[in-house]
Amino acid sequence: MNKHLRVFFGLFASCGFLASLIVHLRTFWGYTLDLPGGEFLPALGLPVVIGALALDNYLTPPAQRQIVSLPGPWPWWALVVLMATGAYVALNFLVNVVAPGGSPVVSKGGYVLQEHGLVIRELTAQQYREAVVRQARGTSGHMLIFYLMPALWFLFAKKAPRSATE
User: What's the whole-model pTM score?
Assistant: First the structure.
């Protein structure tokens, strides 16, 4: 993949990371994207960056592939940022798994917690809002790592130069 495409996809992934981070941080103050399913909007770019990442990996000659540092050496700080974000995403996942399951839904003018279409229990307006915020926090938290990895890959990983025989 040429340098300009790598920069484009790196910046695209960086914008997705920033959008996910903003949505995620806003949940700590009780805010979400107040659209139906709004917490999923930043995820719309994931197929683009993950597809580009897979294509770039496919286009890397097998002799240049390394298990740990595909497509080439990474700066130490990029690995630290990636590992710290990965640890935070894992912690965010565990916190959301421990929380009571189900999806908050408005049904017949009231608030309920549902799981697979079955009503688990009724919710107050405050409990409903907290469940919506928790759901947005879990979703946006997962997107952080899926945008950060391609951003660092495309912008900072050093590709080995292609040999003249390839």
Answer: 0.80
